[in-house]
Specification:
This protein is an alpha/beta fold. It contains 7 helices and 5 strands.
């Protein structure tokens, strides 16, 4: 591999696997970053490792932070994950406060060390759960902040770019795109509340969006459901 370095945030889910494949197709050397942040669905880290291997990531770092210290989310606190749908007009309890800001900040720090100017994130603003840190205006604001906060940007040698190639795509479009790129979605997991043996619950909002995407794409869903 001899492309430019890029930090790719890799959760092990459908979206981030597609983004990693897109970064590789664009000629970037993938430096994958995942987080063990106290999430109840830590099995996603096993999926992230599989995805990193498939995209031939130059390295895959798993960063330990404990967002359970704050809680406030069904993913990081003793709160049940909703299984009967969520209010489309409200931010669901599965939203983790400031998660993408924290993740992007770590990615920005690593990018500085690598001399990289490109960060990829798999957020989506169409078929998603309504999280505020998945919107285009949020990403634009973070990119603006990065130009004020990094040595290379201040010196004018390397402005930072936040890439969110899935931002305006439906889940079906994402799945078709990844399938064309050869993404093996059976290696990924999107579930917020998987079983101990790594099977998806099939009922949380993330599972519902995944099922809807495969159905609308006209493709078989390879997910192992409980």
């Amino acid at each position: 591999m001899s492309g430019r370095a890029a930090v790719v945030l890799l959760s092990g889910g459908l979206d981030s696997a597609t983004v990693a494949a897109l970064a590789r197709r664009a000629g970037f050397d993938v430096h994958a970053m995942s987080f063990r942040y106290g999430q109840r669905h830590a099995v996603e880290l096993e999926a992230a490792a599989r995805v990193a291997e498939r995209v031939v990531a130059r390295q895959h770092r798993v960063v330990d932070i404990d967002l359970r210290a704050f809680g406030g989310s069904a993913l990081t606190d003793d709160i049940d994950v909703p299984k009967d749908g969520v209010d489309p007009d409200a931010i669901p309890i599965t939203y983790v406060p400031a998660r993408n800001t924290i993740f992007l900040s770590f990615a920005l720090a690593w990018a500085e060390v690598l001399g990289a100017t490109d960060i990829f994130i798999g957020v989506n603003a169409l078929d998603y759960s309504g999280y505020p840190d998945c919107r285009p205006e949020y990403l634009a604001a973070f990119e603006t902040m990065a130009q004020l906060a990094t040595k290379a940007a201040i010196e004018g040698t390397a402005p930072v770019h936040i890439h969110a190639p899935l931002i305006d795509m439906t889940k079906a479009e994402i799945i078709r795109c990844g399938t064309d790129l050869g993404v093996d979605y059976s290696t990924t997991i999107s579930c917020y509340d998987p079983t101990a043996d790594g099977r998806a619950c099939g009922r949380c909002d993330s599972c519902r969006l995944r099922q809807k995407g495969f159905a609308e794409a006209g493709l078989a869903d390879p997910t192992r459901y409980a």
